[in-house]
Write a structure and sequence with these properties.
Number of strands: 12
Bound molecules: NADP nicotinamide-adenine-dinucleotide phosphate
Helix content: 25-40%
Shape: globular
Order of helices and strands: EHEHEEHEEHEHEHEHEEHEHH
């Protein structure tokens, strides 16, 4: 029996997950296909019900369904409960469990591809949307020494500021411009961009949230934006002499964690990363 896996979203045409997940399945010679399903919001319940079929191992879930799938699942891992969002569903004998691999994917990319351990370090997080929440929670649980959240809408940054405080981490919420941002950047060991600045077809695709003059050469700059592979922020960081890490690594590592849950096998990360980069460069 050919087993089925895939990703749901709306729209979904942009997703490169089918390319690097299929590469991982093929690497092990598994009789399995991973495809993209465009599922309209009013069709989510019926689609999730269909995942209980014995030939389905599980799926990834992306925008805008990460919260919408929750009412239709049977159980949840701690990662999904903490994030309040599901990006991975696993089918075991008709029982559906929900997980979120964004946090572990982010941390593994940071450690393995960025060579950076966030414990005890000062972090500047740019953005306060869905991705920023997952990243903030992962950094808080890792025990960073200080977290600054800079966002255009400061009230959204305040929510993450409070989340940090609840876990005993000192934090501050600031606007995404002005002297407070320059000061926070100058003392950061790690700068993570979770805004859409620099994203192809986004609201400001040529824009960078920081200039090279604001980035210390000792920092690691991790841009979650992966399309394009080299973003305006990463170019500014390189100009400043800082270390850089693109978003494609996190994308692959979150997918690798999903793959391991579905198959019980170690994800072939190098194979997946190569397929993902090839897809982006095509
Ligand atoms: P989201 O929930 O829509 O959040 C968007 C963020 O960008 C918010 O902080 C928003 O600020 C800010 N923003 C949007 N337009 C802006 C503008 N013109 N000026 C200043 N700030 C602006 O999106 P998301 O899901 O968190 O995704 C954010 C980025 O991360 C996207 O580029 C996405 O592709 C990337 N991402 C990458 C991965 C990965 O695996 N590498 C995973 C998830 C997301 P306001 O709050 O003020 O609106």
């Amino acid at each position: 029996m050919t087993t089925r896996l895939g990703i749901i979203g709306f729209p979904i045409g942009h997703s490169i997950s089918p390319l690097f997940q299929q590469a991982a399945l093929d690497h092990y010679g598994m009789d399995a296909t991973y495809r993209a399903w465009e599922v309209k919001p009013d069709a989510v319940a019926a689609f999730v019900e269909g995942l209980r079929s014995p030939d389905v191992l599980g799926i990834n879930v992306t925008v805008p369904h990460k919260e919408a799938v929750i009412p239709y699942l049977d159980e949840f891992g701690n990662s999904a409960t903490g994030a309040g969002a599901v990006n991975t569903i696993v089918n075991r004998d008709g029982q559906l469990s929900g997980h979120n691999t964004d946090g572990t994917g982010f941390l593994r990319a940071l450690r393995e591809a960025g060579g950076f351990d966030p414990r005890g370090r000062r972090v500047l997080l740019l953005g306060a949307g869905g991705a920023a929440r997952g990243v903030a929670l992962a950094l808080i649980l890792e025990g960073v020494s200080h977290l600054t959240i800079a966002n255009r809408t400061v009230s959204r940054a305040e929510i993450l500021h409070k989340l940090a405080n609840v876990h005993g981490i000192t934090a501050q919420a600031i606007p995404l411009d002005g002297p407070a941002l320059t000061l926070a950047a100058s003392t950061a060991d790690l700068i993570v961009n979770c805004t859409t600045f620099g994203m192809s077809h986004g609201p400001d695709e040529k824009g960078s949230p920081l200039s090279s003059a604001q980035i210390p050469p000792t920092a690691l700059v991790n841009d979650l934006v992966y399309n394009p592979l080299e973003t305006p922020l990463l170019r500014e960081a390189a100009r400043a002499g800082a270390s850089t890490l693109g978003g494609i690594q996190m994308l692959v590592y979150q997918g690798a964690a999903s793959f391991e849950m579905w198959t019980g096998r170690d994800a072939p990360v190098a194979v997946m990363l190569e397929a993902a980069i090839r897809a982006m460069e095509a």
